[in-house]
Amino acid sequence: MHQHVFVINGSGGVGKDTICELAAAVWKVKNISSITPILQVARSAGWDGIKTPEARRFLSRLKEICTEFNDLPFRYCMNQYQEFLHSDAEILFVHIREPEAIARFCEAVGGDCKTVLVHRPALEQARGALGNRSDDGVDNYTYDSIFVNDGTLEELPEKVYSFFKRFMES
Length: 170
Known about the structure:
The protein is an alpha/beta fold. Helices cover 50% and strands 16% of the residues. The chain has 8 helices and 5 strands; from the N terminus they run βαβαααβαβααβα. A 5-stranded parallel β-sheet has the order 2-3-1-4-5, sandwiched between helices. The protein is globular. The protein starts with a strand and ends with a helix.
């Protein structure tokens, strides 16, 4: 079995998790995020779990601090990647927002790592910037592919299948 690693990115609310869930209906998927260990730290600091613009700024800054302090987000992702390699999962989705963190992870993983940017034009235009480096800088990386989430929810499963099938067959 060939395993595939996808760094998936896009600003808040564009459908990244929904896309991963739909892929999991077809393939064995492990879905992780570099922010996961940061959320635990944030909850200890009093964050209520709601991703308001202020909370998104807090989480983005906290991730920067934890990266500088002990590289927690990267270490977490690499540990999860090692677990994936020893599992029967076919796809590992890794949610990483910051361009330098994407590049670092892809370099550490090697050639089988592909990057995907998810855009949802109607939402992004209506909402505008979210006011933090992690969300607002998602376009500052050269991705292998772009998934445009512009259809209906009913159309999305086939679109997800078609999009990832080409990677799975290569």
